[in-house]
Amino acid sequence: MAKRVRVMSMSVEQPLWRALTGYRVLTMLYAVGLFATAYGTFDRPWVAVAYYAVLCGWTLATLPKVANAASCTKRFLAADLTIALVGILLTPLADAHERIVAGGPTLPSIWTAGSVLAFAVKGGWRWAAFASTAVAVANVFERQAPARDTVHNVILVWVASIAIGYVVEVARASERTLARALEIEAATRERERLARDIHDSVLQVLAMVQRRGAVLGGEAAELGRMAGEQEVALRTLVAGGLLPASRVSEDESQGAVVRAVEEPDEEGPLDLRALLVPYATAKVTFSEPGAPVRLAHAAAKELAAAVGAALDNVRKHAGDSARAWILVEDEPDAVIVTVRDDGPGIPAGRLAQAEGEGRLGVAQSIRGRLRDIGGTAELISVPGQGTEVELKVPKDPGHPKAARGKAERG
């Protein structure tokens, strides 16, 4: 039965938009009330009345524009800031000169801060710095001099808006991180559920077909071999989680989480498991940690190639019936890959003889590759008991062995 998955929309900045909506309405009422209490002191009150009519109409009509990031467009922000700046510059025409010199409020008063904060919530601290700078220039022009109260108010708006813009950027980054963590958790749970279901049904059937086919022989043996290969492939699919991590981004138009597959970075670290899993077959067992094993791009490629060379030697010298095992260990300071087989082993002195004859498979394809990336390759073989190759690569590029390997290549 298909399992319905519900994707929840997340927006940690939405409370800021609601707060901004309330702030704009309250500061509009405050600016109108402030004018009403000082109506008799204005030289041209009709200028102020006309401006407040526009301000009130604009504020109430554009409440949906400050409801979320998608509605708050650049065009709206520009028009909103323009109304704030016009109100500041109209103040000398409406108010008495004495009140302006004494530090009286501008026509929009603290409503102007709401326009600046809209820039901060929408675009972060850089947008906030731009808007607050424009307000600062208008205030200085309106006063005709940078008075102490003017400078104080300008700096207060500047610092507050930039701080809020920075907090918004941090909140958005945290939201993306949370969304990715939730996605990974959900994917892990689903993979574990599928692994249990498949293990209890399909994998057991394939394993039984493989065993019975080997016993019956003939065409049944070939069918059993194919079933064994499919069992290995299916185990790899459900157990590894080896697909590239997905990228989580936010769709501002809907406030929803959007997921897309992220292509591997050709220069960034690689998950070694994804490079080694293709080597798994019915006769090659691959065992790896449950978490990604990340190595530098070049080191991961060379290590995987060395593993491939070791398996080639198993096929050439141990025979078609030999089995091999690949074990990946993720240590704190290094990655260790062990390739073991149950073949006849290597006779004493055989490797030195092969190098003397010009066959440098182990010397170059395995040890040479590991030396180039600052790693080591140890080969242990007991006649009649198989061969084990241990490949060790330091994680830190500045590790003495890694640095020595780079120097030798240079």
TrEMBL record:
Pfam family, one: HisKA_3
TM annotation in the entry: 21-40, 46-64, 76-94, 100-120, 151-171
Residue span(s) of domain DUF5931: 6-179
Alphabetically ordered keywords of this record: Kinase, Membrane, Transferase, Transmembrane, Transmembrane helix, Two-component regulatory system
Domain Signal transduction histidine kinase subgroup 3 dimerisation and phosphoacceptor: 190-230
A GO CC annotation given for this chain: membrane
Protein name per Swiss-Prot or TrEMBL: Histidine kinase
Organism: Streptomyces avermitilis
Lineage: Bacteria, Bacillati, Actinomycetota, Actinomycetes, Kitasatosporales
